[in-house]
Amino acid sequence: MNEYLIPLTSACTLVTLNYIAIKVRGKMLIESYEHLLAPLLTGLASIIMMLEPLPQTLGLIDLRSLPMFMAGLRYGLPVALLSTILPAGYSFILHENHGIFIVAQDLIAPALLSSLFHNKEYRNGFLDIPIRHGLQICTLVFIVRLVTHAYQAHSLSLEYAADQLFMLFIMMAAFILIVAMVNDENKNWRLQRQLELQANQDGLTHLPNLRSFISIASNAMRKRKVSIMMIDIDNFKLYNDYYGHLEGDQLLRDIASVLRHHINEQDYVARYGGEEFVLLSTEIDPLQLAVYAERLCTSVADRFLDKSNPNNKPSITISIGISITQTPQAELQHIISEADYALYESKHNGKNRFTFYNGANMDNQK
After folding, report:
1. pTM over 0.70
2. Is residue 275 among the annotated active site residues?
3. Which among 185, 275, 283, 294 is annotated as catalytic?
4. On the chain, which terminus has fewer CB atoms closer than 10 Å, C or N?
């Protein structure tokens, strides 16, 4: 009976090692090195399984295949094959009988087989690993072992089949526990990401909020010159009074969508508050910024042309104020204040236009 405790102990050891690896990965920023660490840790786990050989009556050497299952399933074929190098080398150092056959059967074959079930979303944690994949892999390995043994021995005894069923149960139980732990850690990671996103996202427009913008803009301004655009929806209060607050909220979402789709790819737009938006741009050439701002004004005006002033309905346009940093590491709040002052001038001079901040003299455009 004690011989059956050995695979149980090995399986428990592997589950514990997987738990430790998950926690270490969660506490340390090792994602950028994961393509190297995953094969290394998988190979070491496989070697640990080789340190306690199973009784020959069970028909298996050890549980070295289990780490390969997880490597192939989660990381794909390249990582799984790299993971076989250390245990394969250790097998040859031990001078195991039929070493090449054992490496092929218990390391390379599991790596290849489990890779067939790989999905790239399993690696980044955005998708849970289905438990059924683990059951399918273990079952296929069980069938392969039975067929291989029957081919070599020219027979298949009931005792051997029963031992293999016991090992199949051990592999399945361990694999299910490991997959469950990985999925649970991924769920916690996704929840954390969601909470972080909610903390930095405006709930109505789904644009970044001011908190997020200040962090991004402050970092950008330490490195280079930038420009800031303050953007305000013209006649928003009239629109709210005419259509109601629900339609006003929808207008904010629509304007946010227009801005999101018409800003430059490297730029960053956020909701400033109320009916105002703020845009961080890497463009600092006034001529290019004029074209840029003109495009934004035109895009919004064209988008809402059907609601422009029939029966005295409020027109939907935007006004923009622009400020360009004169030196890197300028103060963000000061640049925002300048852009806000230029926005006031755009409003004062007729709306649906953009204005550059230029000290005492404002350079009105459009």
Report:
1. no
2. yes
3. 275
4. N
